[in-house]
Automatic annotation (TrEMBL):
Protein's UniProt name: Leucine--tRNA ligase
Gene that produces this protein: leuS
Keyword check for Kinase: no
This enzyme's EC code(s): 6.1.1.4
PANTHER family per the UniProt record, alphabetical: LEUCINE--TRNA LIGASE, MITOCHONDRIAL, LEUCYL-TRNA SYNTHETASE
Places the protein is found: Cytoplasm
Domain Methionyl/Valyl/Leucyl/Isoleucyl-tRNA synthetase anticodon-binding: 665-785
Catalytic activity: tRNA(Leu) + L-leucine + ATP = L-leucyl-tRNA(Leu) + AMP + diphosphate
Ranges spanned by the short sequence motif 'HIGH' region, renumbered to the chain: 42-52
Signal peptide: none
GO MF annotations in UniProt: aminoacyl-tRNA deacylase activity; ATP binding; leucine-tRNA ligase activity
Keywords: Aminoacyl-tRNA synthetase, ATP-binding, Cytoplasm, Ligase, Nucleotide-binding, Protein biosynthesis
Amino acid sequence: EHRYDFRAIEDRWLPVWEERQPFRSGREDDARPTKYVLDMFPYPSGDLHMGHAEAYALGDVISRHWVQKGYNVLHPIGWDSFGLPAENAAIKRGVDPAGWTEDNIAQQKASMKRYACSFDWDRVLMTHRPDYYRWNQWIFTRLFERGLAYRKPSQVNWCPNDQTVLANEQVVNGLCERCDTAVTKKKLTQWYFKVTEYADELLDELENLRGSWPSKVIAMQRNWIGRSAGADVSFTIEGRDEPIAIYTTRPDTLYGATFMVVAADSDLAAELAEGADDATRAEFAAYVERVKGENEIDRLSTDRPKTGVFLQRYGINPVNGERLPIWASDYVLADYGHGAIMAVPAHDQRDLDFARAMDLPVRVVLDCRDDAGEPFGDPVETGVAATGDGVLVNSEALNGLAKAEAIAAITAELEAAGTGHASTNYRLRDWLISRQRYWGTPIPIVHCETCGEVPVPDDQLPVTLPPAEGLDLKPKGQSPLAAATDWVNTTCPTCGGAALRDTDTMDTFVDSSWYFLRFLSPQKTDGPFDPVQAKRWAPIDQYVGGVTHAILHLLYARFFTKALRDMGMIDFGEPFSALLNQGMVQMDGSAMSKSRGNLVRLSEQLDEFGVDSIRLTMAFAGPPEDDIDWADVSPAGSAKFLARAWRLARDVTSEPGVDPASGDAALRAVTHRTLAESQELVEGFKFNVVVARVMELVNATRKAIDGGAGPADPAVREASEVVTILLSLFAPYCAEDMWSMLGHQDVALATYPAVDESLLVEETVTCIVQVMGKVRDRLEVPPGISQDELRELALAAPGAVRAIGDAGIRTVIVRAPKLVNIVTA
Ligand code: ANZ
Ligand code: ZN
């Protein structure tokens, strides 16, 4: 007896696929319409883990489906192979980062092939190779020429243990994301990309992605950009020539300002403090030291006791001439707005907390009401600021105006008086790309005493990394490249004089900001990508990856796309037309991430249950966005089901190509319903439901074989082929074996069968229509009818219309699909 043996099947088909490469995307003469499906490329930090297995299983369903639907699909893969893990492994174990990286890539590649990922293996790219990062450097110089790459000294987050600069999101609760050391600040001159230049566009164009991107991701991008509309207002300062500007989103509350606050760590605070007495200056200096160690998230937190120092200085409110004491505190940030605020404690929670802590006055200037129309309690007593809408009070000419009217009126007044104007602020900051680490793209700039910052000319790119051998890679606040003296010392491309190379390397997010374009022509040597291919394939039709990249990676890729568009290299501004974020694989609630270690090893799961069972389990576990708890799923159950499906193909006895028309009608109805539903379900990412439908079809087919129809019935063959084609999205080995038993080759390239609409007879149910509890009509309706639709049909039913007559309708009780009861007035 011929039995399902997943090991034998894997051994049989892997070499065949390797030979036939069914997923090589179509070449120039391919007339099929194109689809570009992209999985986020992995970091080669070890072998593939369960998280990869989930992501690639899901991306594969989409990609394989579009191939079967007749598209020329591009589904490439590569490696995001620069970054800290390779460098840390090199430091710990003395290995060469390049060798370590290449070894891991080889291992992951073999695992991906075993996992039957439908990748086009002719398009592989690796970002640590000079033929890739050369183009990072090329793009850098283009950004530099346009003023979109620049250097400035700045306070940076600094991990004293890793001795490296950290981006804000790498600081978690004040600690380094990687090593949990408390993060401090340090002043360094660093390279930036001017993302803020595109702030409005990055924000506004999110609206076009609604419906195609998860709304959660859109919201996260919006928040990160953080555009707010308000006004800049000038306050004169006693004893200072220049007024200072503050930024407020609530100029309507100007009459409620009772003090001012400047960021303790700002230059302005230091200057104002100089005028204070010795004791205050000492207190201020100690306070600033403390503030430097704090992170932004804590500083802005509302549930944190407020601290600060009174600077013994006063500002003058431009609308009423009131004298406002100026405090320095950490809850105002130095680099947002102007680093200074007017405090309106009655209507801003943090200001209220501060006023209560320091015993400062509070003045209500908006009469706010709660939902029941009751007046808002006194903020001093309740400790709750009145942040809602209301009508202006205690505000001279503004009294009686609503908030929005007051904002418009006071902004106009400030503009007329020359003391303020409307202004927009963003939370978004320019992208700090400098890293003082070895394993990254060297910044292609030469520093010349005569010529300044000189970009390395195109014909001298790439600036390759010097070999790691002989360099001390241990972090020390300066790039390890600085010690490669032969490499650092160079000549200026402009004047030919002695000059020094920039020793910083680029943030690896640069590598992943345009890799999707490199896949289009990965071997190209005279440009980063071929614009003709970009026209043909891009933007990406479906991007698949983890929600952990929902902010920065996507934002930076969007920025690059817009910048490249403005350089005339592409004709679109958004790289990813649709986005699917898969959930995480968890084991007892802990994520399968590289930092937590893998509790379940993918390779062991594959050995025990087979590739197909693991892939099927990933897809069947639930909606793709949800996390999977590996303790809750059953790869053994998947294996059992696959064996059951496989036996159908084994048992079919009709020849290929027979007309199914004369076959078992009931089975045909199930087959075509499955076909019709599955394509919509796949395209709506309801993969788990597709699997359930295939299971039903397998059962129906088995029933037909064992019951009346028998294994020679052409409907049985048709059903088995449909099972095989659909199953190939999830369990390619099993499906390929079935396809071969059914007398065909390359199930991946099988055409999605046409749905015979005449077989989609809708079942109906009878709905009873009552008026005042009496049956007045009956309707034949589809079982899935909506409440609203049924309500309309019932109200129009002739029997109901007659019974209602001239009476008005009080309520309609709908119990779809079986009952509607109309209650007349
Ligand atoms: C007075 C006021 C009254 C404010 C009121 C709010 C409510 P978003 O929306 O985030 O842009 N602010 C301004 N600069 C700041 C800084 N550097 N650090 C901390 N807070 C700062 O917030 C803008 C509001 O945050 C501004 O409006 C200002 O407080 C504060 F009833 O001004 B507001
Ligand atoms: Zn020079």
